[in-house]
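Entry 14. Ran structure prediction on the chain below.
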Amino acid sequence: MISLTNNGFYLSAGSKKMQAQQAFQELTPENLRDILVRAIDKTEILVRRFRHCAGRSLMILRDYKGRTKSVGKQQMGAKILLGFIKEVSEHFPILQEARREVLEDLMDVKHAKEILTLIKGDKIKIKVIRGYMDVLSVEERDEFIKRMHQAILAKITLKEGKSMKRGN
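Output, structure tokens:
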């Protein structure tokens, strides 16, 4: 799995157990791009970037015969078109540009390669520590937001109740 963050991106092995040191031994500056292309291939971010690229190349039209297509319809069209293009050729120019935008513009793969080169050259050491990362699914996030909203409302109600007692 691949995820984008404010500080770049990260790869994870999902539920499959994988040693971090083993992953870094297998991940090299030379194979990084190929691994990332496979990782982004089924992501929504690639479909979105593909829609932008297809729009710029006039493969997907926003306006046609005086009618405007919504972004959602454009996105659906892009998804269908992308599936067809992948069947025809993995090296289709618009697909290549969408991948380039994701890898270079959004993920900054150039600097990731530099870091891997420094790791391979022992200029950066990897220290293995135990830890965990909390990842909230969309459903968990929604439930969390609802609980926080209820807590805030309860706090407001409590404050209002105290100020009413003082005012009387």
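Residues 2-130 form one domain. Will compare against last week's run tomorrow.
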